[in-house]
Amino acid sequence: MIRLKGARGDGASPFDVILEKEATLGRSKQSKIPLVSLYISRSHCKFEKENNVWYLTDLKSFNGTYLNGERLPPHKRSAIKYGDKIRLSFPVQGDDCCFELQVMKPSNANEKSIEVKKEKINEKPNVSIVTSTPKTKTPDTENVIVIQDNAVDSCFDPVVESPRRTKILETKRAKDLKMHYLKQKLARSANDNFNKNKTKTGGLKKQVAASYGNRIPIPGGGSARVIPSTNKPEITILSTKPKQPGSVQPAPKIKIEKDESKKSSLDIDCINLVGDAPTVKRQPVPTNVSNRSNRVTSLVESIIAAQKNNVNIKPGQTNRPKTTISKVSEEPSVSDTTKSAESGAASKSTETGSVSKPVPNKRPVPESVPNKATNPSKKVKISDGGIAQMIAEKRSKHDNITVSPMKPLGPPPTTSKKTNQIPQPTSSVLQNHISLLPKELQVKNFSTDNVLLKILEWSVQWIRESKTLSNKPPPITDKPLIKLSLSYSSWQKYYDTYEPLVLHEIWSQIMQSYESEKQSNVLMVAVSSYELIDGFLKLDCQATMLPSDFRDQLYLNEGDLALVELQSESCEKRVVFGYIETMISEDITDRTPILRTYRVPPGHRIFLKYQIKIKFRQVKLDCASLMRVRSIYYLKPLLRNIEAILALQNSKLCEDILSPRMVTCQMAVPSIKFSNPDYNESQLKAILASVEAVQRPYTMPKLLMIQGPPGTGKTTTLVGIIKKIFETWEESNSPPKVLVCAPSNGAIDEIARRLHSARHFLTSTQWKRPLRCVRVGMPNQMHPSVRKMSLDELVTENISRQKSDHQRGIQEKIDNLERDVACKDRLVADYRAKNDKNNVDRCLSEMFICNREIEFLRKELKNNNEQMNDINKKKSLRADILKKADVVLSTLNSCRQSLLEGLYLTDRDPCQFNCVIIDEASQCCEPEILMPLTYTSISKMILIGDPMQLPATVISPVASEYHYDRSLFERFFHHFGGYSSSSPVLMLDTQYRMHSSICSFPSKKFYSNRLKTAPDLDKRPFPLKPYLIIDLKGTTFDQSNFKNIHNELEADFVINLYSAVREICHRDTTVGIITPYQGQKKLLSNKLEKNYPNVDVNTIDGFQGQERDVIIISLVRDFSKRDCGIGFLGSANRLNVALTRARHSLIICISDISDVNNDLWKSLVDNAASRKLLLKTSCRVKNGLKNLIKAE
């Protein structure tokens, strides 16, 4: 035996329990030891004994089980001993969220025990309470409950607060059991009376009375099972069977006799139709009880009426029987059945609408049956033929599904948690629309609901835990973590590898956003309704807002992950994760629904409608009170990563991405030599190979990789590829359409500027017009020079042009009419002088008509502005601009906008994308690169990047450990052997940025000596030495705060060095200072702000993609200290970026490099020393710096 003594975290509910056998702790009443707390799982943990050793097992609880402060893994036993401390739920003291227990040795003194014998359900309650009162009360054994072999009933609470309280609880429990017994007795009595009435009647009642659960025939074929209840039986159709050809099914006649003493009616709550078609996901149709009852009654009446005529009703027939069953015939005998079969065979020639005459003097079936069930979601299954088809059609009217004649509708969505099943479209309209696509473009739809459900299951309390347990991430996924591979044998392994890593990255970004100083948006919303759909509780919410707050975007955005404070009817509050699925805004009018139930604050003129998804929880929400919602993180981009992995199955490049093939990735370049003064040999080879790949048929996938080291002209090559694709396009009907993507706005803006400046090249081709480029994204995140190419600006420009053209046309008509009026006015004077009354009347009539037309045109001119600003007009104009665009430029996240997907996912027009070109492909994670492949028309992908530079930024340390930051480019680069001669990766080998002295070490160390400098680049005059490493003596760096690592003396030297550079160089010379640490960056910025306010000081990561004439690097660390290491400075990619930012001069400041403890930096220092470019000086020197850095 062991003794458990403890209480809840806030001191409430103390208990003292002695365990003699296995016992379960949890919130459920079925647990042997129920615990009252919302933070305790229903079955939280289990105590069990084996070989005189007690074990504790966590039953996969939501908030965890802690033994001596360590969280136990789920379903793994841990031995416990006396004195151990156990905590249930997250470790927060003084709160009602956890229970704290201590394992103690039971005392051998006199004990007080309670034995409860569990009664049977149908027997009179028999409660036996045996209390052994101790002779002498001791503090340790005063309130003890012994749980023996007879388990405690669920209605008993094992917590006994005092001996006086024990007697009160025993009396109350006995009363509860007595009331339970009386209810069971009344239920049995009602069933007995109902069974007696059934034996007196025939027909359906006699069959039902035979045995509950037996099947009875249903009109139209099939059978039904009767579900017993205390009031009336319910009939649920389990299956239907089609009629056999050539056979006649007799119609079972239902007999219900009059019984005024006991009136019972048939209540059909639902009809389940079964078929062989794939699963159809249906939205529940909210209806009131009366409407639904009438619908079901009408359906049953139609079934029986049609069966009487033995007619199969098909969709589209207008002569359906519209009768109600007023009387029902007697119980059929053998002869009656034969007659029924004959009449059924004869009725084949009768009309569809004919109905047999009802037999009089029988009790009618009620026309309206009260509906017991209010659950809107139903399982629907049908099979072919007759009555089942009519049922499917009637059900389809309420589910908005078009049913083809004599075709199965298919099984319904199940309520199980298997949300990863793919729903197949069954709507004829949708199916016809998809069938318009070629077979290779007919795709499956994938949903991220399975992953979203896992995210919404996370506990908000984990955020509090993560602050105390920063090194231990919470159990956010059940799947094991797998390091990334170079190839994958199947898509499922690929998905199982990436899903847990994406979830870890999502959690880390949630924590970073939650802890950031940025203020999140908070909104009080009203819940108008909620419903359960596929494991989600979908909340329809409403809110109001000031127009000024709406302009400042202080609302909850679609795609936000939010903290939702649920308010139940029992006044309990619980904070959970919620996902903002949709958001609609409109102006508040007198007809706005929220005005009917809530008092809107003054000044609130914006009405917001939200749909928020949360994990389903068995709680009744209080819709009368407001709910607080706080957005903490924009979740949609990473959900799109999961969706991109799912949609990869539809892509022609799927197999090659899982396992790269040489034939798909090789560069097919013509053997004929071409020359072009605008490009070097490697650039021209990349352009020709890319154009050749794009010209291949759709069924031949191609994935090309172009490695572009710093300064080799990646953007120039990309623009050359696009120009060459349009110049050599073979189809004359329509030009090609190219999608260009990059992970950052800066990179895509640079490409947009280059394309816009070169857009007139297309005028010399067969298209005879400039290139049409559209930049997709948020205009406020674009460079000002590119906003004129943005979709919103183009829409505004086209609207203003159309408006001005329309106004000009109307004004011309008005001017012409006014001239006619003036002319006719003079004619009237002339005719009046001649006394020509007829012509006067004619001219006055024509003047009247012209004046009316002028008035009409002026009104049209006034209303033109409102018509042009219409939302639908703008939406159609956006779609038209995108269809006519030649090149669409977007970031990887923005390429999945709903407008783009609506045009390019299901459209068969020539506006489909022919290829995608991704710049900076090595700076994004692999799932991000897969986003453009959701457009299944793309079977050609061109990646341009450099795996030797910085990879993608990953927040999660767990994901980084498993190489989640590796790009698809880097995986393919290493898969094909790096710089081996057989690798299909094409490297641009000529750089036009750096002096050869700066390029020497990076070429040797990172590019296998293949990177060369363009001719005549070293002949550029410059007053500073091109390359120099300065060894500073006497500096010390402060690393007491890892977020603020800095070196004060080195910072002073860098400022003096910057002053010397400014004195030597021309004032137009651009100078940048690079440092790897944020602390040193702040220190340098503060010191330079007084004399040099506009100096570019940034980290290595911040300078990626940039270049300056002069670069000064401050490395901060002391490389001679072996006990502290050099941190992330050991990254070769980061060092490569730092060394390749300068055009003319690179100066590196290192503190004490006499004994460098890193091979990478040691090779850098040795290289500089061998070239006599290493200088040693004191950090306090100020005079003489000009002579130190000045060119000879």
What does this structure look like?
This is FHA domain-containing protein. The structure is a single chain. The protein is α/β, with parallel strands linked by helices and 1192 residues long. Among the domains are: 2-104, Tumour Suppressor Smad4, CATH 2.60.200.20; 448-638, no CATH class; 650-772 and 885-987, P-loop containing nucleotide triphosphate hydrolases (Rossmann fold), CATH 3.40.50; 995-1189, P-loop containing nucleotide triphosphate hydrolases (Rossmann fold, 3-Layer(aba) Sandwich). 33% of the residues lie in helices and 17% in strands. The protein is built from 30 helices and 36 strands. The strands form seven sheets. It has a seven-stranded mixed beta sheet with strand order 8-7-10-11-1-2-12, with no helix packed on it. Strands 24-25-23-26-27-22-28 form a seven-stranded parallel beta sheet. Helix 16 (714-727) crosses helix 17 (745-757). The protein is globular, with a radius of gyration of 40 Å.
Can you give the mean pLDDT?
74
Share of helix among residues? 25-40%
Largest sheet: 7 strands, mixed
Quaternary structure: single chain
